[in-house]
Amino acid sequence: MRxxxxxxxxxxxxxxVIALLLVIGIPSGFLTATIASRVEQASGYRLxxxxxxxxxxxxxxxxxxxxxxxxxxxxxxxxxxxxxxSVQADMSLASVWSGRPDISEIVVTHPVxxxxxxxxxxxxxxxxxxxxxxxxxxxSIDRVRIVDGEVAFARARDRVDGRISAINADAVMGRDRxxxxxxTARVGEHPTKFDIKATTPAPPIERQTMPVDFAxxxxxxxxxxxxxxxxxxxxxxxxxxxxxxxTFGDGAFNGWASVDIASKPLVKVDLDFQRLAIPLSxxxxxxxxxxWSDAPIDVSGLNYVDAQxxxxxxxxxxxxxxxxxxALDAKLAGGILKLGTANLGAYxxxxxxxxxxxxxxxAPSFAMHSDLVGVRALPLLQGLAEFDRIDGKMQxxxxxxxxxxxxxxxxxNMQGTAFVSFQDGAIRGINVAQMIRSLTSGTLSGWQDxxxxxxxxxxxxxxxxxxxxxxxxxxxxxxxxxxxxxxxxTIALDTKMMGFRVEPKLVMTTExxxxxxxxxxxxxxVMITGAWSQPxxxxxxxxxxxxxxxxxxxxxxxxxxxxxxxGAGLGNILNSFGLGGAAAPGGGxxxxxxxPQTQQQGQGQGQNxxxxxQLGEAIGNLIQQGLSGGAGNGAGRSRSLPGGSATPAPxxxxxxPTQDPPEAQQDSQPMNDVMRQLFNR
Length: 681
What we know:
With 681 residues, this protein is α+β, with helices and mostly antiparallel strands. The protein contains twelve helices and 32 strands.
């Protein structure tokens, strides 16, 4: 009886142990060496298993390996390697007994591929080395899942570390050798979704064609899905992609590509698009007045790949700008990128030029030269820079260079030259003539823009010399049917400030700029200063006080044809202020008409001469305002009037007594009336 009890207890213990083994698994460290040997035999890579290994029989037969490292035995540095937290393989027990394991699923948890970055291609790299060729030895795999994978690119010497993280993929393999890989990842900060379908050839796969269908979604970068078909072939360490065709957004493309991964990657791409759309992020409202960003711009990745790329398109949309045709050639070698175009059509014109970006140093630098001929300015500037103030045919020559790691640094270090000319167009939202009128009553704050207003221009041109972010011009020139503006000034690219001193002139005849005589100006320069998004615009009265002789000479010039015959109306107005010129024979005045008969006719036509009298009175008031304002600030400054003397010349009748200058006025109603007649405002 005691023996029976012992046997029963032993049997119960065995059943309990078997049950526990079925649930928690059988410790199987003795299998580690065998598994590592089989992996190296099949792949050529060394497998190290530093964690536990176990076999579980419930609910299915599965093997779990923990803390694995896979690396090339030829790489003594150990930099290139794959680490895996765990691998679990599920299979049927019957297939194991048959010697042909049928693995239903392999789950790879947190695999990390460490890939070093090289600045130079290794001269002894074997481009014809044999690629990975798996020998499954009769085993089959239905599904492979990757959970939280990563690809880490690093170069410790340059302190560079980039990652493709959060890789979650599911690969399903059918009996007909068709493979479907779908998943998600994060490339830098950009979420990515991919779906790849391929048909794998029978081993060995080297030099055999593998048809591949792909679809990639990267909404932060591409905005549209990139989908297509290609034929993939492995030739040693070179991955050849031929017969590429597909769609990007609503445009089709075709071409080829190749990648040499023997050492430093060499990428070659040649793609032709029917329509290529490259979106650009729009600036938020108010960004024009914000300072340049000091956020670092990292282009160091250009040092670790070489490339030869050609992109062509029948039509290209960059931001909101439409270009047709497009042909770009790019070459990247040793961290220096050269991007050029010789045949870029843009809104009825042509663009050519080259950009060189040098990323070899800590502070990347760039240089560019570009020519634009006959390009319509409004759609181009609006599409690329959200600038919609100027329309017309644009011609430009740019030669610029700079260096820096942020927008602010690049603008601060900008150097070079620029010439820009606009012809047969308009300045939109601004009426220069009305701005001149408004300046007679006060300072303007910001551009006086309105969708209903514009200033037609025959030509607007300026050349700039740029040094340390300061763009200086001495030949600003605007020619329009009714206005002409010349000036000089500086645009501070680094601080988004501007300072211009311009001289606006009005063309007081419908003959326009083509007449023989020069346009007539007020003789009062205008200052445009402050932030370029909201500058202050005001008359430079100090400029008049610096040279009053020239100012009054300009007024006399304006009298010709505007203030009655030979400026009689202007002479009367100047006399009313005690500002008449020297006496002329016969009691006349050089500011008026020396012919008494003509003078009498002018007096008899007072009603028909209101235009000259009103405008003269308004300009006189404006000058008096300047004189009054300048008297307080420059009491010690002497003034002289052209053609006049300290004491009036003897007249037939007593000269009117000298009066104090009238008080400064805020506005001039006569000027307002005249401007309405001149410009229909």
